Amino acid sequence: MPSYLAASSNGSCRRVNRREGDTILRLSEVKAEYFDPMLLDRTQDQITAKELTSRSYEEKVHALDAQIDALSGGMRIKLEQAQNKIKQARLKLQSDSIRVVAAETEIKVADDQYERGEQQFKEGLVSKVELERRQVQQQRANATLIDARNKMLDARNELLNAELEINSIRNDYRDKLSKAESEKYASMSQMYTTEAEVSKMQVDLANYTVRAGNYYVTAPQRGYITRAVVTGVGETVKEGEPLVSVMPAAFDLAVELYVRPMDMPLINKGQKVRFMFDGCPAPSLQRLAELQLRHLRWSGSGHRQLHQPQRQVPHPGGSRPQR
User: Fold this and answer.
1) Which residue segment(s) compose the domain that 10 sits in?
2) N or C: which end of the chain has fewer CB atoms below 10 A?
3) Which residues of the chain have pLDDT under 50?
């Protein structure tokens, strides 16, 4: 039985070949998006460019990783330096506190000496020069106490500044790390988006390649063109529309017949069967009478299908097959 070859895509008929073994039909493109003759090459160039872009984003991600590691290392060093400054400020504050205590003790001793000297001066036990010397010592001890207290306050301020500096370092580096990580994730998102575009373009390239291969309609098997549905050059065909009718050059003959259930025990698998027909047209009788089947197989309930025909001289008479 002849079969029809259908168009795999929309196109316009450019050439019809009728010789056996040739391409049956050639189609040309009718859609504007496929008119470019260099479509496959340009699509491949776009894929290559996108792959390079994706690789660039990947390198940028690696560079940002290195930058984040460097910032983390710098933050650790800065924090250690700030911790050292805090320790130094605490030690200095402790030292200045001891000086203040010593100055307070000294001023207390100087006050006592001055009071005793003043009492002794009234009693005539010490001279006025000695009393003035003790007064100078009292004022000097008072100045030392004031200076020690000022230094202690400075040390306390340095300690507070060191503690504030360590917080400032943390905030500064956290801000830098956050920016670097944000840029890193943005680059990763762009890289993944580019990879998805590359995959889509690769699918498009494969589709274009398959579509380009459908421009030439070839015979699926050896046979003969019995009918050309599309005959005019330039005629537009749609996808799935039949183009030509092809008759195979070599095919196996088969006969399907109905056997009554009561006759089925009389038939065995592989049994030879001869068919003889009455009342058939003369041109068909010679062909149909030559059929002889070697094997028999089931095709359904109450049916069997016979295969592998063999040419044989037609029987002279009779209307029923011999079992």
Assistant:
1) 3-29+215-248
2) N
3) 1, 12-20, 284-323
